[in-house]
Design a protein that fits this description.
The protein has two helices and 31 strands. The protein is mainly beta and about 260 residues long. A hairpin with a 5-residue loop joins strand 22 and strand 23.
Length: about 260
């Protein structure tokens, strides 16, 4: 994929300073810039590298004023916030690079399941009874979507994710490989012989919109009611969420937390 400075500037509402037709096809760090790549300068402590970078395009903040001569091959795109606009570009690039459609073979899709438009379902995936898969959802290979579960529009389920029965995933969510959602909460009741009897976990898990869940994270179903991950939450890899927990909106939890 190749884009001109003009096309990139239009995409992120930037202002081109230099050759608007220069083309790039990859990203680079500013200190390791190569011809044909786009880089960025957001932190002033890296400013010295912009005067020697070999990158073809650099995103910079609107108030950036060079203190010495820039490389002759470098075109600037000035934006309101270089780091945020870089994130937008990376998201756009990633969507183009990973976007798939179609249903591979073999998969199992229960006759009662409802599958939306423009979906991707990878090989060896299981879609259970009464599941609803929204439009433009991607379910990568070897995933399991249990009975009565929902996956909202535009969400991405990466390879090897296991959603137990009655798991509700909102729109524009990302769930990374190895994640298990809906396994039993850790509920046991001791009896008079000091033996532990399992307490059935009959609740579910609700993951609201715009949530991202890292690899090998586990979220337990509620004993009764719901374990809830509110909208905008970001969970890192190897996070454990216990039964009946409620994580508030836009919470960020780093790796290996419980």
């Amino acid at each position: 994929m190749e884009f001109t400075a003009h096309q990139i500037a239009e995409l992120i509402s930037g202002e081109v300073v230099g050759d608007s037709e220069v083309k790039v096809n990859d990203f680079s760090k500013i200190e390791e810039g190569k011809l044909g790549t786009i880089t960025f300068l957001a932190n002033p402590k890296y400013e010295s590298y912009i005067y020697s970078t070999k990158a073809s395009i650099a995103l910079v903040n609107m108030n950036f004023t060079p203190s010495e001569s820039l490389p002759s091959n470098l075109t600037l795109i000035k934006v309101d916030n270089a780091y945020e606009r870089l994130a937008e570009l990376l998201q756009f690039y990633n969507e183009l690079a990973t976007k798939k459609t179609g249903i591979e073979d073999p998969v199992f899709i229960h006759p009662t399941a409802k599958v939306g438009k423009s979906v991707y379902i990878g090989a060896f995936t299981y879609i259970g009874a009464n599941v609803v898969i929204g439009d433009s959802v991607q379910v990568h290979p070897q995933s399991h979507i249990g009975d009565d579960s929902n996956v909202g529009d535009q969400s991405i389920i990466f390879s090897g994710v296991k959603l137990y029965h009655n798991i509700q995933v909102g729109k524009n969510c990302i769930i990374h490989s190895g994640t298990v959602i809906g396994s039993d909460g850790f509920g046991f009741a001791p009896n008079k012989e000091n033996e532990y009897k399992k307490v059935p976990q009959i609740g579910n898990v609700i993951v609201e919109d715009h949530v991202e869940i890292g690899a090998n994270t586990t979220i337990d179903r509620a004993t009764i009611g719901s374990t809830i991950i509110k909208k905008g939450t970001k969970l890192d890899n190897l996070v454990q969420i216990a039964h009946n927990v409620e994580v508030g909106e836009n919470t960020v939890i780093a790796a290996q937390s419980g």
